[in-house]
Structure formats: C-alpha cells, structure tokens
Design goal:
Elements lengths: L3 E5 L10 H9 L3 E4 L5 H4 L7 E4 L11 H13 L4 E5 L9 H10 L4 E4 L4 H8 L13 E5 L11 H5 L4 E5 L5 H10 L7 E6 L7 E6 L3 H8 L5 E5 L12 H10 L1
Parallel strand pairs: 1-4, 1-5, 2-3, 2-4, 6-7
Antiparallel strand pairs: 7-10, 8-9, 8-10
C-alpha cells in the first residue's frame, strides 16, 4: 500500500502553493483527487501521466459524497498508487482533512498532511487586512457560516462578545442572517466589515462597509462565492480598490 498525501493548495493563486506541494504534484502524483476550488493553474502543475479526478464539494451544487472520496483514497492506495488529495486552502481548516485522516487510519493506510495557506488568513491579507493587530483586536476567530447537516449553528452571541476579529468561511449565501444574528447578539451595527470574493485570483473583488450595510453592498457589487467575510476593526484597513490588478497597480505606484 502507498501513503496518501493530503495537500493544501492554498487560497487559489498557484504561486502561493508551498514548495513541498508543488514538488509532490510534479514528481510523485499518480492519482490526484482534486477539490472544486483548486484552480486550473495549479492542476496544470500535476505531472502529465497522472490521473486527475475532480471530487468537488460546493454549497448548493451537486457534490461528491464524502464517503465516496474516502473509498477512492483507500482503493487507489491499496493498489500501490501514490494518491494526492488536493484541497483548497489548508486540509485541516474547514477542509474535512481530519475526517479523511481518520478514514485512512481505519483502513490501515498512512497519511501525510502537507499544510497550505488557509483562505481565512491569506485572502484578507491580499486586500490589506491584517486579521490580528495589537491596536485593534485580541486575536482572530475562524468560523464557518454554513453548518453541516445535523450540526448546531455557531454560538453567534459568544462570537459577538469575544473581542476578536471574526473570519467567516462559506457564509456569503447566509450573510443577511449572519449579520442579523451578530447585531442581535450585541455587536454594534457600525462595526467595520468586509467581504472578499475569489481571493488571490485574477477575478478577486472585495467590498468594505459597516456590518449593517455589508449585505446590501455585497448585493450591489454582485460578489459571489467563494468568499471570505471579515468582521472587526481591522476590516477598515482594507484597501479601497477591488481587484488584484488595481491593488498591484497601487503598490507599484507607491
């Protein structure tokens, strides 16, 4: 049996992939099980003779059952193939990497995790938002905006009163509800907030507003998933421009 590598592909841009991940894709991959958010630019780095299977999971769209992904990993590893499970961001940050390691262990198969830049840190940074800043916040809390089937909602009251930057994954489709819950839990409506779509990719766009106004701004600008939501004083530090090209031009002009 072969080892299975759980690889974080980072937030999107291929040049944000780790050197270890790039080497494994180019040299060792025989079977690649790729998530929906892994860009074509990254998939182009896979060695030409490898077989790439897309096993994406996206809210509101047809998705590959998690159990089927587990069976594929086990099946190909038992055949002696070098299996790379390629996941957006970091495998262990809302990436189901923990579930997959458990499934492999139960089958007696070794797993190695190759960390990646998680979108919750790198995407805000791409628009000038430091998720921690000693002048504004005591820390950062990463939370999902979409609970799994049978799972409880996040404790929005505790999050509203925690005093940290909130970084919300997979929350754009429920943004109005999330904002209402945070305000009802005591977070001031004028708290700075931002939403960043397609972070680090050429189509990156973002808006910043007060928490109360953020849903209307997102709607007006037509932002779509995948997106990261940031709530807290540091969100006010986001640059005013919206695209990666604009931001690059602004940096070169400085």
């Amino acid at each position: 049996m072969s080892k299975v590598y759980l690889i974080g592909a980072g937030p999107g841009a291929a040049d944000l992939l780790t050197l270890r991940a790039a080497r494994l894709l180019a040299e060792k991959a025989e079977i690649v099980l790729a998530d929906d958010l892994v860009s074509d630019e990254i998939l182009a780095m896979v060695r030409p003779d490898a077989r790439v299977l897309k096993v994406g999971k996206r809210g509101g769209k047809a998705s590959t059952p998690q159990g089927f992904i587990h069976r594929l990993m086990v099946r190909y590893a038992r055949r002696g193939k070098c299996v790379l499970r390629l996941k957006g961001g970091d495998p262990f940050v809302f990436g189901r990497g923990g579930e997959e390691v458990e499934a492999l262990a139960a089958a007696g198969i070794e797993a190695e995790v190759v960390p990646g830049l998680t979108a919750g840190i790198s995407v805000p940074a791409a628009v000038g938002i430091p998720v921690t800043h000693r002048a504004y916040t005591q820390g950062v809390t990463l939370v999902t905006g979409t609970s799994g089937e049978g799972c409880d909602e996040p404790n929005w009251r505790a999050l509203a009163q925690g005093g940290t930057t909130l970084v919300i994954y997979m929350g754009l489709s429920r943004l109005l509800n999330i904002v209402a819950r945070l305000i009802a839990a005591g977070l001031p409506p004028d708290t700075p907030a931002a939403a960043i779509a397609s972070g680090t990719l050429p189509g990156q766009r973002h808006v910043k507003a007060t928490l109360a106004d953020l849903p209307a701004r997102v709607c007006a600008e037509g932002l779509a998933s995948p997106a990261i939501i940031v709530v807290g004083e540091v969100a006010a530090l986001a640059v005013a421009t919206t695209s990666t090209q604009d931001i690059s031009a602004r940096i070169l002009a400085a």
